[in-house]
Each structure stands twice: as structure tokens, then as C-alpha cells.
Amino acid sequence: MKRKISKPQYTFLENEFNFLQQRGIMEPEDARDILALYEPRGSANFVRVLLVFGAILIGIGILSFIAGNWAGLTPFFKFGLIVIAFILFYLAGYKLEENYEKTARSMYYIGAAIYGAGIFLIGQSFHLQHTVYTDFLLWAIGILPLAYYLRDQLVAVFASAFLIIYSFSAFSADGITPYWLLLLIPALFWMNEKRLGRKGSIFIMGVLLATAFVVNLLESFGVDEWISILLVFAGGVLLALFPFKQYKPESYWIGSILFGITGIMLTFPFSWRELAIENTAPYVFTALFVILLIYFLKKDSLPAILITCALIYRYYADITYDFMPKSLFFIIGGLLLIGFGFWFEKSRRETVKRHEE
To answer: Are the C-beta atoms of 307 and 256 separated by less than 8 Å?
Structure first.
């Protein structure tokens, strides 16, 4: 079996082998034999995208047919139809897995889509008394084993997203705090480490899920909003300053995004409305925020450039919108955005050039 590598890595190997051949260090036959052991992942991307879209269209068609005839079916017939369709597509995926791996995955995707939609439709059919967010929880729990079995990044990302959606309602339902989510969060990280090959996207979704859990938990305890936002801000800063070794770029970017969004939120007075110093706190925080951004800018941080641009634009809009003619406001705003884009592109190219050197 050929080892799959990224297209840039494959191109790098080709260039290196050509260089070694020109120097007379490697024979052309040896270069071809070694290169034949590798396969660029990009060559199969089109096929996978085609099959995923095909699976989505088939899933939508089946669900559209079921929903269109839903009123004329008995509840148990509806239940049986969904279960049979779900099982059949999973069986088709299992049978095709050995010889047609990508087609098999599309069958699994259809089965997962039918499973999720079936949860919503069955809940309506049997008039089950639960919130719609519980359906997202059941969907996530149902497809996590599939992600583990297939080692599938896409399914794991969707499961994580459904858990995040559920977390925003779980804490307000009947006053019960879903502490069991504390088991799913480390389970997601563990699955990524041991089964999915340390995917950056799964790490990011795990961080977002943990953040959503903490924010909602604090809200359920009646903690002031500014404290929750400030804690997320601090966590983002720590993640950007001390990124995980295995996920350094992902840690840096997600940490920067978290402290950037919450930092800009804390520059508004509404974030501090529980405090007596509501009108003073935003300016004190903004001064400290600017110092932090200057520190990151000195380290050639691309996220810090984006955050700085957003902060400047936030104050520009806040200060000038009420008294400046609207046409002039939009023209200057557009020029600012173009200038920010040029600054970011120039900084990005310089950073890439330094890394290449």
C-alpha cells in the first residue's frame, strides 16, 4: 500500500530527487522506485468530494420522500422505514469497504444522515417531550462510534458541532447540569490522539466544546457575564502564548481567535454592565488589550494583525458613524479595509519568506 502524503510534500520529494539525480547521487530508476511508494492525497480529493455530495443529495432525496409522505404513514411504519434505511446503508458501506473505500464512506454518510434526521422525525411522530437540542445530543452520540470505526475526521467534526449546539441548552433544561459532558470532552481528545491521527480540526472542535461547557456552566451558576468573557479571554491568551506541541498552529490560531473575539467584546460597556465602573472598565481594558496586541505584533503574529484591524475598525465605526456623512463613512471604511488587507498580505508573505529561509 502506498503511503499518502500531501501534495506539497510529494512535490518536495520530486524536486529533491531531481536535485540528487542532477548531482549524480541518485539513479533515475531508484528515484522512480522510491517515489512510487508515495501517493499525493490531492489526487483523490475530487473523487471524495464527488461522493460526499452524491451522498448528501441521496440523503436529502430519501428524507424529502419520507417527509412528503409523513402524514399518511403510521408512527410504527415511519419508525421501521427509518431504521431499515439506516441499517441498509450501513450494511452497503460495510460490504463495499474492502474494495471501494470512498464509495463505502458515502454509504456510511447517508446512513448517518438518515439516523440523525430520523431522530427528529420520530420525536415529532411520537410526540416525545424533549427539546430539539436533545436530538443533536443523540445524533452526536450515535455517530461518534462511526467516526471511531472509520477513523473519519468529517464525522467527528459534525459530532463535535452537535455537542456544542446541545451544550447551549443543556444547562437550562430543568436546572440539571450535564456534568457527563465532562466525559465526552476528554473522550473526543482521546479519540483524536489514539484513533484519528491527531487532526487539527478535531483539536479545535474539542477546544470550542470545552469553552462552551465552561461558559454555560458559569452562566448556570449565575456568574456575571464579564467574568465568563474574561476567563475565555485569559484562556485564549494562554493557549496562544503556550500552544500544545502537537497542535502548535491550531493552538495559536484558536487561542488568538478566542482572545480576539472576547477582547473586542470587553471593549464595549455592555460587557461590564454588572460593575459600578461600567463606563471606565472598557477603556482600562482596551489599554491593556492594545499592549498585549503590540507584544504579539512584535512576534509577527498574523492573528494579531487581524485582531488589531478589527479593533481599529470597531472604534472607527463607534466614533464616526453618528456625525460623519454616510457616504464618507463607507468610503473611509472601505479604504481602511483595503489597507488592512494589504497589511495582512504583506505580513503573511514576509512570514512565509522567513520560514522558507
So the answer is: yes
